[in-house]
## 1
Amino acid sequence: MAEAYIVGAVRTPVGKKKGGLSAVHPVDLAAHTLSALVERTGVDPAAVDDVIMGCVMQFGPQSMDIARNAWLSAGLPETVAGVTIDRQCGSSQQAIHFAAQGVLSGTQDLVVAAGVESMSIVPMGSSITAALEKGMPFPFGDKWVERYGKQEISQFRGAELMCDKWGLERDELERYAYESHQRAAKAIANGHFKDQIAPVDGVTDDEGPRPDTTLEKMAELKTLREGGRITAATSSQISDGSGAVLIASEQAVRDHGLVPRARIVTLALTGDDPIYMLTAPIPATRKALAKAGLAIGDIDVVEINEAFAPVPLAWIKEIGADPARTNPNGGAIALGHPLGGTGAILMTKLLHELERTGGRYGLQTMCEGGGQANVTIIERL
């Protein structure tokens, strides 16, 4: 049976809004990560079959196939093609899936899966705003309205709906967010991210964590919706960042003298209610575990994107996961969520944490626009 191996994974620091990466062109940010991946793995870049890059707001500086532009900007061979994909927040996790599938199919041997987003330069919603300016008052077409009605479709509403469904109150959300900051700050202080980060323009660490935040400070914030429970403190941060992963076949490992660090065990994908939008990691995880023949207790490290605190809290309750193994070094509430870059960044964190702790299995999942979720299970080698 064919195998797909992860032989390299690297990321930039995650920059905060108006932070150290806010002026870095997204093409250059992604190019930096691609260069670091090639350098750290020692792979011949001319042997790469494709570069698949996730990016959500493919608008302005992030348009015109940023995967190709970043590869060329990194000074890498013109003979290697690139393609940019959008599965919303899971875009670069889907890039990893496509890369692994190319290798597993036997049609490719070396594929770069990457992601990037500069939310400072290309704000979230830029592409929707452009459509609205063209006189399209609702972001979906008539057939959508026929099926779901003309109602608010947003991640903010979805987060509040999750709170309603799972009985999550504001104080529980804030305790979770506080723990995320504490874990992230501790990880940085202990150097847990040092080996996985390729510093950019003097920025060496993730900028988002607030080790001095308190529950009292969180309680003072206004909710994002009147009468709601979600605040900025219990939401992922607006961020800039990029990550890249190299996927290789057994043949490529032999031919290029590469070192397999993990193998892809399972790739799963599912959809759920698009109004709730953020719930799909729950059924997707069940599907992935069943495909892998594993139980949640077999998973040593989980990286689930903290788009909003209700997402991991509801997932933990439904799946029965160990909170201590879930985002052990903090998540997007503390570390940030650069949209299309997050999937590759989370995989980089997951791989390095398995290696640091000696764990065997890791699981990555994240909610995505449209009510979707990817799940990737890897085994450390």
## 2
Amino acid sequence: MAFTFAAFCYIVALILTAVLIFFAIFHIIAFDELKTDYKNPIDQCSSLNPVSETYYIYYMLSLIFFVFQLVLPEYFIHMLFTFLFLCSFQFGSLLFNLPLAVYHVHRYMTRPVMSSPGLYDPTSIMNADQLNRAQKEGWIKLAFYLLSFFYYLYSMIYVLVSSS
């Protein structure tokens, strides 16, 4: 068995796809949390305890901000191993990743105008249609990353066995 650059690219993609799976799971959990806690914070908290109202609002905003922090690393990781597939002439894997890479570029270029580099506007994310869209996007990405994980695993084994 010979260890080639293509095998290295598949190993890197396999490890980074596992990281992206965790990002997608967190994305789904965060938006599910926002969806199930879609209640008026004033109704949820007692007027006798203003600390709980402040904590609730702070919790929701920190959850949205944390999702903001995962957007650029997710896009960078996906573009990194897409570029590695281009450098190693693995055109099947490149074509497999190209639609999501194009979607990431399009999604980032058409994001709402904000001061932070995230994708979701904190003032409009609590709309039911925005939450459903964000949650559906998370499930689709999770399915894609799971499918690509097993595809990279198979491709890595195939490259390692066929190069001997």
## 3
Amino acid sequence: MEKRARFRSAWLPYALIAPQIIVSLLFFFWPAAQALYQSVLLQDAFGGSTQFVGMENFAALWHDDNYLQSFRTTAVFSVSVAVLGMSISLMLAAFADRIVRGSAIYRSFLIWPYAVSPVVVGVLWMFLLSPTLGLLTHALRAVGIEWNHTMNGTQAMLLIVIAATWKQISYNFLFFLAGLQAIPKSLIEAAAIDGAGPVRRFFTIAFPLLSPTTFFLLVINIVYAFFDTFGIIEATTSGGPGKDTEILVYKVFQDGFKGGDFGGSAAQSVILMTVVILLTVIQFRYVERKVQYA
């Protein structure tokens, strides 16, 4: 017989969800409303005077070549981080799931990077790939590869992709490992008895059953690449060289806090929020159809 919790007090359920509602109102809905309001205004750098300009801030963005370039940069960056991060994490989770002795030690080492802040991650990889002092730079130079991300836009993009992917691997690893451990071992053993090798067992049994986890991580990694990588970019390339690593969220910061264009940066944040919402809706609308929950 199904059991349900019943509250005798009429106000207790609302009191329990009140903290979450307050946090959402203060840190999401209120800033979003402020961004919508400021996006139709023209303000001076000190906020002393404002002028209603309607959709002019949005129209100006579509004629800004740097803003359109940041769209392309964000697309390349987010797809690279999501694909690389999920692929490497899935491979590590598959290997860790097969380890019998010392598995706790390996899993602990793989989880540690998630505790590191984005800024520290950026500084770490910036020193490892420093053009003059980096350990990895000297290793690359030994095999004939010259590395200087301060002058080469492709190498700068590769640097932030590596740093952002390394930061997110631990998060993806936890979910993939939990998903693999939830798969009934009897299915894997039955396939092994039928003669299926490890690779075939993984792609015909394990990976399809991981589709809910994979879909969840796809959404999370896209949002992560759009928003949570700001600290990494600020600590490594600051959007350079030129504008080669200036993704959308970093351009909002550059134009608003450094350039003093509050109306234009607010319009950019509204567009960025809309793009992320649309991407999430598209993923739930089309990608989720291929997810197997049973």
## 4
Amino acid sequence: MQSKTIIDIIGNTPLIEAKNITSNKNVRLFLKLEGKNPGGSVKDRAAFHMINEALKRGEISKGDTLVEATSGNTGIALAFISKLLGVNMVLVMPENSTEERIKTMRAYGAELILTSADLGIEGARDYAMQLKDKKGYFMLNQFSNDDNWKAHYNTTGPEIWNDTNGEITHFVSAMGTTGTIMGVSTYLKEQNEKIQIVGAQPADGAKIPGIRKWPEAYLPKIFNRSKVDTIVEISEAEAKKTSNRLAKEEGVFAGMSSGGSVCAALKIANRIEKGIIVAIICDIGDRYLSSDLFE
């Protein structure tokens, strides 16, 4: 009997076709269900790759303490994967994160520090850096860590290419740390440079968990603008509406960043004559039940 651990089932997530949400009959929209990862989000891929590669290189050893700022999904992934790989995890997150996220990270055994909601994820990043310097913790720094995007270059990109038989014309992803879109773009463009890469970004004033329009000082160092062909701005109302439509019309229960991703995909679908679009469904909807997303 073949033995598997929970880490072995990260990746190879389902790709399903949306049948009801699109209006352009010459465009096929596929959804990559990253909520099917064991930690419930696309961030499982990067979390495992970042810790595992750091261990391989000898940058960290079992028993060491790591620190990372997170807005939610990365923290959950790091919390459960760190324990399995034998390292300790301190997570720093804005205090206005959903109760589900907070309890999940603590359930996995991570130490969680909540920072001021007014300072946002930028404040959490600053505080995590202070802990790194003060206590000597190791910081993975997902925002500048090449292992973040390489996780998607090695896994998510090839899966999408193979599952669409190389027929994909457009790839759409929410942009947070930008690891997903950077890795998938790099891989897909190597297969066919004509594939269009589309990033979903919040419109001015919109607050969409998991999607960011970063101030210049906090722009992820792994982000390369030349690898994104089109950026589509999404309002808060559009992201919420699309998340609810996904649940009601496609049976896909996902969070607000997924609503943003699919909203961008639908806008692209209305602009093109025909094509095959793949949009990332970042996580599962369960961790938003204490918010007003589905009210």
